[in-house]
Write a structure and sequence with these properties.
- Belongs to the amino acid-polyamine-organocation (APC) superfamily. Basic amino acid/polyamine antiporter (APA) (TC 2.A.3.2) family.
- It is found in: Cell membrane.
- With about 425 residues, the protein is an all-alpha fold.
- It contains 17 helices and no strands.
- Helix 13 packs antiparallel against helix 14.
- It starts with a helix and ends with a helix.
């Protein structure tokens, strides 16, 4: 279930579009995938080691709190929580968009599309309110259902492979700039690799299960990403692939006809729904972990009979609903605001990766007697690579987004001061 949570959260809606985005770069994109994958795997190893040393609920928040103290813990929990529920709005919109394959009316009625998207939010909220096992079962089922059509198109596509379609650098662009562009595109495909560490309180033997799930899940997604890109680039001419609005669906239609198109459309809907389920689980547990440490209002740790932090789950979904209403009712301006918030949320999600890379070394130093000098060699290496990877991702977000991300984090300072006041009043 933990592995399915990692794979399900990483493989959301983006993978269905990435081959088209990478098509103009040809074989250079393979180098981009490999370099990005190395950074992602190093981060997976960072989270694996952290979860083995410190198997606590809250994932990135818990590690940063342990490594850098109350303020850094609050700061990251604040930004990460906002990024989680705002990102869920994007997944609900993407799922509704893919449902147009089966229900074309959704493409012509904004109110109906909005109602369906909001309905999806509250369906996954209900699933997660029933406990971690309920959401875990959904994660396993949806991950299998999404992987089957993707894997089928990928592997059967190799039987239709035409080597002349795959050029190393089809437009003869400068290698370094092409490599930089492909890395920027592929970086976003690995968001979610930390997912297994968040619900640690509900995991059996978390010190063993979470590291294995994190590494295995990241490797599975990496293999599928690279193979699918190669397969589709060999199956379709570069210009055709680059112009495709649904590359996997078009590839399936090319090989199998209309029923293949419908199969991949179904896989895309399930993919978005599965990712939405997994990220909804996280939007409840991150603020709950901070509340348990007295850094968020205590109500965020309020749990129902199934042990779910129900207040944080419902509040987060209510905020997503408001964001969705703004998107579907605001016209062009509303759409632009929505897209900006989602881009901001994506960039904010990357900040905990940089902090966690250094938190691993900080926690090991604090527990100095438990580790010999040679114990720092491997963690120091992949923590360093993970830190550079995270900085690169933030740089790729653009100066405006980084600036607004900083303002978003600074907006949390009054909340932190208020919580300090409440803690001192209790003491």
């Amino acid at each position: 279930m933990c592995t399915a949570l990692v794979v399900g959260n990483m493989i959301g809606s983006g993978v269905f579009l990435l081959p088209a985005s990478l098509a103009p770069f040809g074989g250079v994109s393979m180098l981009g995938w490999l370099l990005t994958s190395c950074g992602a795997i190093c981060l997976a190893l960072v989270f694996a080691r952290l979860s083995a040393i410190l198997p606590r609920e809250g994932g990135p928040y818990a590690y940063i709190h342990a490594g850098f103290g109350d303020f850094a813990g609050f700061w990251i929990a604040w930004g990460y929580w906002i990024a989680l529920w705002a990102g869920n709005a994007a997944l609900a919109v993407a799922a509704t968009s893919y449902m147009q394959v089966f229900f074309p009316v959704l493409g012509h009625s904004e109110p109906l599309a909005g109602a369906v998207a909001i309905g999806l939010i509250w369906i996954v909220t209900w699933i997660n309110s029933r406990g971690a096992r309920s959401s875990g079962v959904v994660a396993v089922v949806t991950t299998l259902l999404k992987l089957l059509p993707l894997a089928a198109v990928t592997f059967i596509g190799f039987f239709h492979f035409q080597p002349e379609n795959l050029a190393f650098n089809p437009h003869n662009k400068p290698l370094l700039s092409s490599l930089s562009a492909t890395m920027a595109l592929t970086l976003w495909a690995f968001l979610g690799l930390e997912s297994a560490s968040v619900p640690a309180g509900d995991v059996v033997e978390p010190e063993k299960t979470i590291p294995r799930a994190t590494v295995i899940g990241t490797l599975l997604a990496t293999v599928l990403y690279i193979l699918s890109t190669v397969s589709l680039m060999g199956l379709m001419p570069a210009d055709t692939l680059a112009a495709s609005q649904a590359p996997f669906a078009d590839a399936a239609k090319l090989m199998w006809g209309d029923w293949g198109y419908w199969l991949v459309g179904f896989g895309a809907v399930v993919s978005c729904f599965g990712a939405l389920n997994g990220w909804s689980l996280m939007q409840a547990h991150v603020p709950a972990a901070a509340a348990k440490d007295g850094l968020f209002p205590s109500r965020f740790d309020q749990r129902n009979a199934a042990g779910v932090p129900i207040f944080g789950l419902v509040l987060s979904s209510a905020l997503v609903t408001i964001l969705m209403a703004m998107k579907y009712a605001g016209g062009d301006s509303g759409v632009k605001i929505f897209e900006f918030i989602i881009l901001l949320a994506t960039a904010t999600t990357l900040l905990p990766y940089a902090f966690c890379s250094m938190a691993l070394i900080a926690i090991m130093l604090m527990r100095g007697k438990e580790f010999s000098p040679k114990d720092y060699v491997a963690p120091g290496f992949f923590a360093g690579i993970g830190f550079v990877y995270s900085l690169w991702a933030l740089y790729g977000s653009g100066a405006d987004i980084v600036m607004w991300g900083m303002l978003l984090l600074l907006m949390g300072l009054p909340i932190y001061v208020w919580q300090l006041k409440e803690r001192f009043a209790r003491d």
